[in-house]
Amino acid sequence: SDCSSTWIERFLGVEEVAGSNPVSPTNEKARRKAGFFVGPLDKKAEEPSELPLPHWTGMIYVGSTVSAMIVDPTILAVLAGVAGVAGMVDAIAGGGGLLTMPALLMAGLPPHEALATNKGQSVWGAGSALLRFWRSPLLDRAIAPLAFCCGLLGAMGGVCLVQVIPPTVLKPLTLVLLVLAAVLAVAIRPRAGAQPRSLSPWVAAAVALVIGAYDGFFGPGTGTFLILAGLLLWRKSYDAASADAKVVNFASNLGALAVFAWHGQIVVLVALVMGVAQALGGWAGAHLVVRSGAGLVRWVVVGVSIAMVGKLLVFDVIAR
């Protein structure tokens, strides 16, 4: 679409020319240094067999042109390692994007492709963690279908909203909420064996819709905010709140992924390689929560909240 093309051009700093590779010399030099090769292919997407590219090539479709990036296997291995650790952290308390987004940017992906590819790989970890939690008694299966649908729709709406409103408008509010999340995580200690509060399913629908939209629009702290919602509204334990959070987390990742895939902004090869590692890490993280209980989730939530506040503040200083 025209909106998507404008968004791509703004990040790449080039104008799209039909039949040519929309990569500036500056970006080409940066990608070569990071281990990527980006060549002016001047080939139509209908002719992939004519491109002399090895089997690890990732394709990104931009309009009627195709930009081919050949990724060094060493970089793929590093990205996979980062994704595995991120999947484990994300399954416990959220915050895996703290690791994967900088890794993708350092590997040479432009911001919009890094964001899209991050969703393409993180959905595997969230799905794997959800499957592990589904087999445990921690997950509330009664509200899961409704929360999933609302989280999916919210995320798709949030990604579309990015096209017209800069997501940085939420940064001040996000910083305040993350600091509050760290404080509350230290302060709140649910009583062992206490029964969770029973609320209308529409409360769960509203929470899933709002936080799902936030995830698609901006993102940092989504898993943490979902866990806090479970603690404050339903008075659940940390481990049960973490399990329920994965329903909306998976749905919002899936919704955002669908929109990014529609615009052809995902580096599929990188997303798949990282996705496999994410799935393993997500399963391991969820298994740790099931086995270790609420104490693990509580302190990881504190650590992730503080780390995200630091990241947002540091990036703000660098941007200035």
Write a concise synopsis of the structure shown:
The chain is mostly helical and 320 residues long. Helices cover 67% and strands 5% of the residues. The radius of gyration is 20 Å and the shape is globular.
Describe the secondary-structure layout.
Elements: H1 2-12, H2 25-33, E1 36-38, E2 57-62, E3 65-71, H3 73-93, H4 97-106, H5 111-134, H6 144-162, H7 171-187, H8 201-217, H9 222-232, H10 238-262, H11 268-292, H12 294-319
Explained architecture:
The structure is a single chain. The protein is mainly alpha-helical. Helices cover about 65% and strands about 5% of the residues. It contains 12 helices and 3 strands, in the order ααβββαααααααααα. The chain has helices at about 1-10, 25-35, 75-95, 95-105, 110-135, 145-160, 170-185, 200-215, 220-230, 240-260, 270-290, 295-320; strands at about 35-40, 55-60, 65-70. Helix 10 packs across helix 12. The radius of gyration is 20 Å and the shape is globular. The two termini are about 30 Å apart. Mean pLDDT is about 75; it is low at about 1-70.
User: How many helices in DSSP terms?
Assistant: 12
First-last Cα distance: 32 Å
Alpha-beta content class: mainly alpha
Number of strands: 3
Mean pLDDT: 77
Overall 3D shape: globular
The profile of the biggest β sheet is: 3 strands, antiparallel
Strand content is 5-15%
Low-confidence stretches: 1-70
